[in-house]
Amino acid sequence: MIRKRHAIDLMELSFAEDAALFAATDEYDELGFVSAIDWIRFNCHMTSGAAADRVAVGQAMNRMPRSVEAMAQGEIGLAHVTIMARTADALKERFDERPLIEYAREHSPGKFHYFCRHARHAADAGGYAADEVDQVENRRLSLSSWIDGSMVLSGVLDAFGGAALRAALEPLARRSGDGDSRERERRLADALVELATGREQRASLQVTSSVETLLGLAGAPAADMEFSLPISAKVVERLACDSSVTRVLLDSESTVIDVGRSRRVVSGPARRALNARDRTCRWPGCDRTASWSAAHHVVHWIHGGTTDLDNLVLLCHRHHWMVHEGDWQLVRSDDGRMLAIPPTVTFGPPARAPD
Ligand SMILES: [Zn+2]
Ligand SMILES: [Zn+2]
Asked: Which residues surround ligand 1, an ion (CB under 5 A)?
């Protein structure tokens, strides 16, 4: 594999040389493409990023002869050379490959990239800061709703903003508890929602629901929530369980009978007592802290449950979701431990005993 990778890298270098020669002409224009990179992307079946990298390497080759030689000797790879070329491009006449190549010989492309960023800052702090400003100016986030109400996110963040987002999401995206088989992308998405709704009553969502909806009566309409399609009684039940939302309850005549967090709120002393008793989410194996958890009513207040400590248990937002919408059951065993019981799965009607 090492020999093959070296041979591929040499071919890539030769390809990069051709790509730069091609980019120096306007042949792409005659062929009907908007740029040389565009022609390469389409005809050589590459991503535009990969095509741009090859052109950059080809254009910088005469400015980094030692790097090209080190690659020919198999001391560094194409990935190093690409980073070197990008650095040469950014630093213009201040570029000097000699200190960089020593580092490249000893380190992986990832570490080398990091090192080159430092080198760029050292050689041109002003330009580096200007790049950062550009990145911030280019921050984008688009939110578009699908017909079923689900939302597609796409966007770009600057390096700092991206790191800040990751720092906020990663702790929330860790696996939690027994049997957490969510894939990483799912966990990151859950973490983003948790960030937006979580941490004790920070989000100010407003939910409007009828009592019939909350009681799950047949024929009841769905509940309304800002920025969302109508939501089911199960979602309302979870949101109303702990008061991380402002809720407006309507009776059958659409008269407002309850607004906000009065009475059922587990707040102040009661919440502090609950936090002190449970400390973390009580789901078996989960250690999400109290500030990222909700006060779950074992018997929901809509069904007459109280807000006494006996009827409350701390659950992180994911496990709270699993109890309400996921149909998991959480029961306290005789010795006070919590047991999580998965939803029963049925396959069609029960089999009949043979006659
Ligand atoms: Zn609950
Ligand atoms: Zn949990």
From this structure: 241, 296
Q: What distance in angstroms lies between residue 234's CA and the mean position of ligand 1's atoms?
A: 10
Q: What is the pTM of this model?
A: 0.60
Check: CB of residue 102 under 8 Å from CB of residue 44: no
pLDDT tens per residue, range 151-177: 999 999 988 888 888 888 888 898 887
Spatial separation of the C-alpha atoms in residues 331 and 339, rounded to whole Å: 5
Q: Are 311 and 221 in contact (CB under 8 A)?
A: no
Q: Compute the distance between CA of residue 54 and CA of residue 48 in angstroms, rounded to an integer.
A: 10
- DSSP symbols for 27-43: HHHHTT-SSHHHHHHHH
In the reported structure, the alpha carbon of residue 304 is separated from the centroid of ligand 1 by a whole-number distance in angstroms of 14
Cα of 322 from ligand 2 centre, angstroms: 9
CB distance 293 to 281 below 8 Å:
yes
Residues 14 and 27: beta-carbon distance below 8 Å: no
Around 122, how many Cα atoms within 13 Å sit in the side-chain half-sphere? 11
Ligand positioned closest to the Cα atom of 321: 1
Residue 314: strand pairing partners: 295
- For CA atoms 89, 90, 92, 94, the dihedral sign is negative
- 245: part of which helix (H) or strand (E)? strand 245-250
Read off the pLDDT of residues 184-195 as tens digits, 9 standing for 90 and up.
999 999 999 888
Which residues are CB-contacts of 161 (< 8 A; sequence separation ≥ 6)? Answer: 136, 139
